[in-house]
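Protein in question kept in full:
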Amino acid sequence: MQEPTVTGPKGAIVPRSAEAIAEAAARRGVVLPAACREGVAQNMALLEAHLWSMRGYEASDRTGGEGA
């Protein structure tokens, strides 16, 4: 199944890469300490998984059958 673009009510896409997270934080004036970056990335992955789930997709739909 092809992965649709996951967007929020204002068209926001969930940032996942370190660069995308840093850019999103900077746009909002948020400073992410180095010690927090890994945890933020893990939380963004969890939030994205919840978005997929709420839209009716299973983990295997997102990963080509490999599960979460």
Observations:
- The mean pLDDT is 76.
